[in-house]
């Protein structure tokens, strides 16, 4: 989360774990800390004040950044994330209280050799990490396998993935291989190659990770995840239909295609009534789309 309104959106979202990025915030932090406290009471909360050196937007000194961390810790988050190379790392780790420390390392230029990556993990573990986060940039498909090989191999839990378009698969597979969590966007992506929360839930739902549940809370959480996936796919369908409508208008074709509509509804089977509503929504989008 990078904008003030994102915290309120996160409170309403079905996401069970939220990262609050405080580095873009300006002005009084007290109202933000109150919102963070609400998040920490209802979800798993990670707070971070990312430095410009590792993709953040904080404008002040390291002493000022430490002050923001200390205020954020008043909200009792479950995790606090600080860069492994930060001068204030030891101060944040000492002040974290019951929160768990995520020591992170980001490489926006590429993915180093495996020995360097393993060295970062060891350094983080020795530096007081409860969780190690390694985020590199994929320049080849092999970079995905390189960073994923870090997951489950250290003495502490490791979150490892590659950023960028070529690294999407590592974001998806990291939790399936044992990482405690992965990163997605509730709204606009905050990092290269980041997928939306709905897109990630659509993938995980399709993989069957929400099957064979036994408790009511888990079942309800699974329903929330599937709902997020459905909303994502419905938005995607509307976007495609909008493009189809634009193309039809440019070609002088009619928006209505009775045979195509009948084919879609026939495929819907028991969901014909539901798909009829979806088709009508998509037709409406095609009608009003500008040329």
UniProtKB/TrEMBL annotation:
Instruction: Please provide the Gene Ontology terms (biological process) for this protein.
Output: 3,4-dihydroxybenzoate biosynthetic process; amino acid biosynthetic process; aromatic amino acid family biosynthetic process; chorismate biosynthetic process
Cited CDD domains:
DHQase_I
InterPro entries the record matches: Aldolase_TIM, Chorismate_II_sf, CM_dom_sf, CM_II_prokaryot, DHquinase_I, Type-I_3-dehydroquinase
Q: Which Pfam families does the annotation name?
A: CM_2, DHquinase_I
Q: Where does 3-dehydroquinate bind?
A: 19-21, 50, 171, 194
**Quaternary structure and partners:** Homodimer.
* Entry protein name: 3-dehydroquinate dehydratase
Native species: Thermoproteus uzoniensis (strain 768-20)
* Gene name, Swiss-Prot/TrEMBL: aroD
């Amino acid at each position: 989360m990078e904008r003030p309104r994102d915290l309120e959106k996160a409170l309403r979202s079905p996401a069970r774990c939220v990262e609050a990025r405080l580095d873009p915030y300006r002005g009084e932090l007290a109202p933000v800390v109150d919102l963070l406290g609400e998040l920490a009471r209802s979800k798993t909360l990670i707070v971070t004040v990312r430095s410009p050196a590792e993709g953040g937007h904080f404008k002040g000194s390291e002493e000022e950044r430490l002050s923001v961390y200390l205020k954020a810790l008043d909200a009792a988050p479950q995790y606090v994330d600080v860069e492994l190379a930060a001068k204030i790392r030891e101060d944040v780790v000492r002040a974290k209280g019951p929160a768990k420390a995520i020591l992170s390392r980001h490489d926006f230029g590429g993915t180093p050799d495996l020995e360097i990556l393993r060295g970062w993990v060891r350094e983080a573990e020795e530096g007081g990490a409860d969780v190690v986060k390694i985020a590199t940039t994929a320049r080849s498909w092999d970079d995905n396998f390189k960073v994923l090989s870090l997951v489950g191999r250290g003495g502490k839990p490791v979150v490892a993935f590659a950023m960028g378009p070529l690294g999407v698969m590592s974001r998806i597979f990291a939790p399936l291989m044992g990482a405690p969590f992965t990163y997605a966007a509730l709204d606009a992506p905050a990092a290269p190659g980041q997928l939306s929360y709905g897109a990630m839930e659509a993938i995980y739902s399709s993989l069957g990770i929400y099957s064979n549940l036994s408790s009511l809370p888990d079942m309800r959480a699974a329903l929330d995840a599937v709902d997020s996936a459905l909303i994502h796919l419905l938005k995607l369908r509307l976007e495609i239909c909008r493009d189809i409508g634009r193309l039809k208008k440019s070609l002088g074709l009619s928006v209505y295609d009775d045979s195509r509509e009948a084919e879609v509804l026939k495929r819907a089977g028991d969901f014909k009534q539901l798909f009829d509503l979806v088709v009508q929504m998509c037709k409406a989008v095609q009608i009003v789309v500008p040329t």
